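Ticket #4471: structure export looks truncated?
Reporter: QA, pipeline team
Priority: medium

Steps to reproduce: submit the single chain below to the structure queue and open the exported record.
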Amino acid sequence: MAADSRPRERRSIARNKRATHEYLILDELEVGIVLRGTEVKSLRAGRVSLQEAYCFIKNGELQIMQMHIPEYAQGNVHNHEPTRDRVLLAKKQEVEKWSKSVREKGTTLIPLEVLWDGSLVKLRVGLARGKKLHDKRQSKRDRDDRREEARAQKSDRHGD
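Actual output as written to the record:
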């Protein structure tokens, strides 16, 4: 039997919007997450928060802490702890490479987005360096300039 050749649907569940404001993303990696059944059901309802979450490497494993997945309403005694540490599934070479980078001063691992990849839950993790205040201001200026430029182009097209 041949494998299904259709591309898997990719949908975002939650995005860490503050990450790109607070940090300069140097590199990204998409990894799997080890979850329990009730966690998956909460994710299907779109209930997850990445605001306080951060990643770290412990004993050669990539892990995420403080990612809040609320308890599933119908989960009864089989419910999970909302902010438990979760293991992330990544290749050993990637973890070793990032482990060296994280040892550098000023770099950290932050979760960027939780998404569905077909029926699998994936997490985009970023290797990041904190922005200084002037960097944040410059990013905002650049974003505003791009927005103004797009508005001007749009008005030029509709004005003709």
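Status: closed, not a bug. The export was complete when the record was re-opened. Leaving a note from the reviewer for reference: The chain has a mean pLDDT of 82.
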